[in-house]
Write a structure and sequence with these properties.
Elements lengths: L14 H48 L40 H4 L19 E2 L12 H11 L4 H5 L4 E9 L5 E8 L5 H10 L7 E3 L2 E13 L3
Parallel strand pairs: 1-5
Antiparallel strand pairs: 2-3, 2-5, 4-5
Length: 228
């Protein structure tokens, strides 16, 4: 005998309805879960804020504020009291100066103080051109002869074959002495130093004159170095 299924008990016809109901239930459950989590997070944040505010209030209350420093003490004002006394009252430690004027004191004159000023030493002018030129004793020939006899040819210049003229300048003073000899042009090998040595050893010259008066004169002298 075959079993026949009741058409009313067939669930395949209502399968789509049951599926929709299940999806709605699941969606509702998910929404409820999210709402519960959001509430929990909001409550947790609110709780944390309250705890932080309470801690800050406690820290602020525990801060110890130092009292302000006391004001500096007021210095008492010093007042000077002037005591008024009568003319007849004696005063101790009174300084009395007796200045008597007599015939001797009338004629006393106070001499003014004179401050002596130091005289400025002005160096005399050095001439380069004068009416009468300074001259070596015996003239220029005697000068060249003196140089030839007294110059010692430097060994360095001799070994290197150095020859030529060294120009020397110096001042002939008013008494004929030689001052401030300098080399204007040197040829090396020690020739300049030898020329200065010979010029310093020269005897006094006849000084130069300007308007009949002896003056200081600048003189330039060539010293010749030749190997024989």
């Amino acid at each position: 005998m075959e079993l026949k299924k009741n058409p009313k008990a067939d669930l395949e016809k209502r399968r789509g309805l049951y599926l929709e109901i299940g999806l709605v239930v699941i969606l509702a459950a998910v929404l409820v879960a999210f709402e519960v989590k959001s509430y929990d997070s909001d409550e947790e944040e609110a709780f944390q804020r309250e705890v932080i505010e309470e801690v800050e209030e406690q820290i602020l209350q525990t801060d110890i504020q130092e009292p302000p420093p006391p004001p500096p003490p007021e210095t008492p004002e010093v007042t000077t009291l002037l005591e008024v006394v009568s003319d007849d009252q004696e005063i101790k430690n009174e300084l009395v100066v007796n200045a008597e004027v007599n015939e001797d004191t009338k004629n006393i004159e106070i001499a003014p103080v004179v401050i002596e000023q130091e005289e400025e030493v002005v160096e005399e002018q050095i001439f380069t051109v004068v009416e009468n030129e300074p001259e070596f004793p015996g003239g220029m020939e005697a000068l060249y002869k003196y140089l030839a006899q007294n110059i010692k040819y430097p060994q360095l210049a001799r070994d290197n074959g150095i020859t030529g003229k060294v120009y020397v300048t110096f001042v002939v003073e008013r008494d004929g002495s030689i001052a401030n000899p300098k080399v204007l042009r040197d040829i090396g090998g020690g020739c300049g130093a030898e020329a200065i040595r010979v010029v310093k050893s020269m005897p006094k010259w006849t000084p130069g004159k300007q308007r009949g008066k002896a003056v200081r004169v600048q003189f330039n002298l060539p010293v010749n170095f030749n190997l024989k």
